[in-house]
């Protein structure tokens, strides 16, 4: 436990609603280096409430980097300066006394700001509704060990399945592309035997909704992979492209 | 006097569920679409129930306060899910899983429920694999297992350290499919603030739209609560920030009995506290105890670097006290033992923590194997503490983690309010006084995939509940109550923040209603909670208005419900004059300091009926043990 405190200047994006113009507001805080980043926002809000001022609206839940609720752009980087962690896992020991820290919401035309640092990422859910599943009902499935899967394949599928749906990939991309997000789910199911029956319909359906929602195209900057808290690889995007081309060639979709 | 009817079917334990499934009434496929269900909560229990009910043809609305159903706190479960597959050929069976769970729960769970849970455990694994859940596998391509606390077989299926995430994403994918089809209406960013009860029957809910602030009414033929546990009553717990008791507490105030509220589990392997402004505690999966050895120095106030403490000055206290289970002793025993050594002043470097040491396993298995098994957990540890657990032993300490208590339900998972069903951690059911590791995921999915889809049909076919219009007088009353409560909270404008009250309550709960309890402390605790509650109504400051996004108002509503629940937890702990499982009353212990159960007088479920603020009636559901005979748990 450290005794010394860090004095920071926080420049936080304040915006009262989706159609209102927002701006940075300055707050001065003194924090423990052992605190997490979100704990300093908790503290700030506590002191704002104490002086009857409106707290900063931001979202978080599990604070263990797995639920995908939190997501702030810190000094220009989604989830902050460290790689492979979500905002809630960032600790203040990575900042220096006297630092100015800019805190903004995830920015993308598909993620409208609701209030301050809170954005609407429901477009990602709608892509999942289109095809992010294997069409089986509860019951009537084979014994789990009747589907042997090579350990390596299972492991690749897991790497893709680790996506927490936070949207940092979209926020990091200059085109606001959701290709990393979509490719993670498509890859997981394309790799596994259980995903084969709908392999080609799935990719077409998910891409269609992705485009309809207004997510941009991928231009291979790899910013998504760099900011992904779970280290989802851009190789999944390459697989997504292959799957999509194969689907088009095979024309499995009858409609 | 209300009589509690558990509705446990007659017959041999192994046949009860099979017979019950046959005897229950069915709704024919064409009629299913005439029945609607509201599912509150989208974690393992809620998402699996909503998806499965929609697959069957019922009209389903799923309500969550998250922006997406995928964010529910089930996602954070790390270690695994139990099932009686016996893939490891080590002597497991449905009966053994049943037996271990009843024994692990220290004989305070309902035998028939636990047996059903063990029976459907295997179906869960099949279902999840078919959904594409990437469980750990061996080189031959088949599923791998590991062992967990409280069991001597390897029956735990896992997906690295992210089992909860993968299972929830599986259930979420099934739910997404139904949402895409239009069979489930997904209502996100809405917080349930009350249940509407018309003529004694649950007919809908009142929710606050967390974006607009609008108070909405939703009605259905049945309401299913799958809203999780209430560990956040302690303020610091491993639960997510938004986890709360409001749904079940409001239902309790509307007539649903609360079962065993004092049974709360303190998880032995969490990261220790770093300071006053800490917002939550982080769990380190119990699976770490498979390969990590827990110890403290045998000397008081030993400030040496742990690597400098020689082997003969280390006390591997779990291995010493419980040689047959050692580091895998059940959670309550492990937690209390940690508290004991810390209370003796032997905590790691004088702090409230003990060491969890992997050096022997790394020597025996190699760093690669340990990395493969626990890599992501080690990363989490290093991210938070700044220490590398491959070279320095981890420091861990117990933290509130899971609540075995919850709304009382019968065998059909229906509460004491007809039409109101409760699933997963939100009900009191299968874990008795202590839950074994890797059993929470099992119960959530069992309830959602394989129990409620049958029992709700029986309710519809048997009771033929009517759909009540949301213009009914009872809806108007409930909406006014909710609006008045919001107005009241916003009008106090006192000098203290909501978090201040929550933290104060947490300290009372931890000190007086925590890991070890006694009569004097509990009585003091009740007084302190009451005082804090009245202070809340005088001096809290809820800033902002009821319109639009107001996270301060959201938290205030949750804290006031915790201030009421906290009192009931203490009342329940006071009434239960015995020690059992996670409920340890200092007055009732053996000479060796182990929990002393009193089966003669306390082999019952405490089901509390709300009368008025601070006043409850106790109903007892007596528990019979026909298969697992009463025995003192021994892990020695």
Number of strands of chain A: 7
Please give the radius of gyration of chain B in angstroms: 24 Å
Largest sheet of chain B: 5 strands, parallel
Low-confidence stretches of chain A: none
Class of the largest domain in chain A in CATH? Mainly Alpha
Distance between the termini of chain A: 63 Å
The CATH class name of one domain in chain B reads: Alpha Beta
Beta content of chain A comes to: 5-15%
Strand order of the largest sheet of chain A: 2-1-5-3-4
**Radius of gyration from the alpha-carbon trace of chain A, in angstroms:** 21 Å
Spans where pLDDT lies below 50 across 5 or more residues of chain B:
none
Number of domains of chain A: 2
How does CATH name the architecture of one domain in chain B? Alpha-Beta Complex
Q: How many helical stretches of chain A?
A: 8
Topology of chain A as a string of helices (H) and strands (E): EEHEEEEEHHHHHHH
Largest sheet of chain A: 5 strands, mixed
| CATH fold-level label of the largest domain in chain A | Fumarate Reductase Iron-sulfur Protein, Chain B, domain 2
Helix content of chain B: 25-40%
**CATH-wise, what's the superfamily of one domain in chain B?**
Succinate dehydrogenase/fumarate reductase flavoprotein, catalytic domain
**Assembly state of the chains shown:** heterodimer
Assign the structural class of chain A, choosing from mainly alpha, mainly beta, alpha/beta, alpha+beta, or little secondary structure: alpha+beta
């Amino acid at each position: 436990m450290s005794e010394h405190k860090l004095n920071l200047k926080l420049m936080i994006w304040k915006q009262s609603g989706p159609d209102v113009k927002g701006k940075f507001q300055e707050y001065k805080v003194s924090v423990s280096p052992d605190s997490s980043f979100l704990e300093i926002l908790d503290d700030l809000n506590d002191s704002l409430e104490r002086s009857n001022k409106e707290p900063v609206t931001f979202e978080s839940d599990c604070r263990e980097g797995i639920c995908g609720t939190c997501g702030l752009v810190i000094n220009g980087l989604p989830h902050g300066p460290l790689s492979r962690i979500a905002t809630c896992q960032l600790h203040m020991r990575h900042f220096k006394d006297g630092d100015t820290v800019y805190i903004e919401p995830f920015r993308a035309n598909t993620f409208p700001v609701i209030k301050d640092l809170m954005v609407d990422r429901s477009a990602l859910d709608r892509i999942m509704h289109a095809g992010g599943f294997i069409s089986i009902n509860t019951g009537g499935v084979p014994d789990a060990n009747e589907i042997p899967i090579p350990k390596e394949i299972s492991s690749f599928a897991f790497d893709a399945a680790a996506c927490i749906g936070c949207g940092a990939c979209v926020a990091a991309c200059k085109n606001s592309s959701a290709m990393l997000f979509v490719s993670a789910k498509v890859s997981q199911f394309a790799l596994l035997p259980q995903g084969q029956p709908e392999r080609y319909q799935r990719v077409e359906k998910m891409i269609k909704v992705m485009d309809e929602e207004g997510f941009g195209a991928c231009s291979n900057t790899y910013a998504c992979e760099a900011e992904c808290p779970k280290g989802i690889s851009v190789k999944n995007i390459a697989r997504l492209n292959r799957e999509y081309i194969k689907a088009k060639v095979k024309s499995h979709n009858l409609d | 006097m209300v009589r509690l009817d558990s509705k446990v079917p007659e017959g041999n334990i192994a046949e009860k569920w099979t017979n019950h499934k046959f005897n229950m009434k069915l709704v024919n496929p064409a009629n299913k679409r005439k029945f609607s269900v509201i599912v509150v909560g989208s974690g393992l229990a809620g998402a699996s129930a909503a998806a499965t009910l929609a697959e069957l043809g019922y009209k389903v609305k799923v309500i969550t306060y998250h922006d997406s159903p995928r964010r529910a706190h089930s996602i954070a479960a790390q270690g695994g899910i139990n099932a009686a597959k016996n893939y490891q050929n080590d002597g497991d069976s449905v009966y053994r899983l049943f037996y271990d769970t009843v024994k692990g729960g220290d004989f305070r769970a309902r035998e028939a429920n636990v047996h059903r849970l063990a029976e459907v455990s295997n179906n869960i694994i099949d279902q999840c694999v078919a959904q594409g859940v990437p469980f750990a596998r061996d080189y031959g391509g088949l599923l791998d297992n590991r062992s967990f606390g409280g069991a001597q077989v390897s029956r735990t299926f896992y997906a690295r350290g992210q089992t909860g995430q993968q299972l929830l994403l599986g259930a979420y994918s099934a739910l997404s499919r139904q949402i895409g089809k239009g069979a489930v209406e997904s209502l996100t960013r809405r917080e349930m603030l009350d249940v509407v009860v018309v003529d004694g029957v649950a007919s809908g809910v009142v929710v606050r739209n967390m974006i607009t602030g609008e108070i909405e009414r939703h009605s259905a033929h049945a309401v299913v609560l799958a809203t999780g546990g209430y560990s956040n009553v302690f303020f610091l717990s491993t639960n997510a920030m938004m986890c709360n008791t409001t749904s079940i507490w409001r239902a309790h105030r509307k007539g649903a009995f609360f079962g065993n509220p004092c049974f709360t589990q303190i998880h032995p392997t969490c990261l220790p506290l770093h300071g006053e402004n800490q917002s939550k505690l982080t769990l380190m999966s119990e699976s770490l105890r498979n390969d990590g050895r827990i110890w403290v120095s045998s000397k008081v106030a030993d400030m040496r670097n742990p690597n400098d403490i020689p082997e003969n000055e280390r006390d591997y206290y779990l291995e010493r006290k419980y040689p047959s289970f050692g580091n895998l002793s059940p959670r309550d025993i492990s937690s209390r033992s940690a508290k004991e050594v810390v209370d003796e002043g032997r905590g790691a470097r004088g702090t409230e923590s003990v060491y969890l040491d992997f050096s022997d396993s790394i020597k025996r298995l190699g760093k690669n194997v340990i990395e493969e098994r626990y890599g992501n957990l080690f990363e989490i540890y290093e991210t938070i503490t700044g220490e590398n657990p491959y070279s320095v032993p981890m420091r861990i300490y117990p933290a509130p983690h899971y609540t075995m208590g919850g709304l009382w339900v019968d065998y059909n998972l229906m509460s004491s309010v007809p039409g109101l069903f409760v699933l997963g951690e939100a009900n009191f059911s299968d874990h008795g006084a202590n839950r074994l590791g890797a059993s929470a995921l099992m119960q959530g999915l069992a309830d959602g995939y394989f129990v409620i889809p049958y029992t709700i049909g029986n309710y519809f076919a048997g009771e033929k509940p009517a759909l009540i219009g949301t213009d009914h007088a009872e809806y108007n009353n409930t909406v006014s109550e909710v609006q008045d409560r919001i107005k009241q909270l916003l009008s106090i404008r006192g000098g203290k923040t909501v978090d201040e009250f929550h933290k104060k309550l947490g300290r009372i709960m931890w000190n007086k209603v925590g890991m070890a309890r006694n009569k004097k402390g509990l009585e003091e605790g009740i007084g302190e909670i009451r005082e804090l509650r009245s202070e809340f109504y005088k001096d809290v400051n809820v800033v902002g208005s009821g319109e639009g996004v107001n996270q301060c108002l959201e938290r205030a509503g949750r804290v006031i419900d915790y201030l009421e629940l906290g009192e009931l937890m203490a009342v329940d702990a006071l009434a239960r004059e015995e020690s059992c499982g996670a409920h340890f009353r200092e007055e009732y212990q053996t000479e060796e300091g182990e929990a002393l159960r009193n089966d003669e007088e306390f082999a019952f479920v405490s089901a509390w009926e709300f009368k008025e603020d601070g006043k409850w009636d106790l109903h007892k559901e007596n528990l019979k043990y026909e298969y697992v005979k009463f025995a003192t748990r021994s892990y020695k």
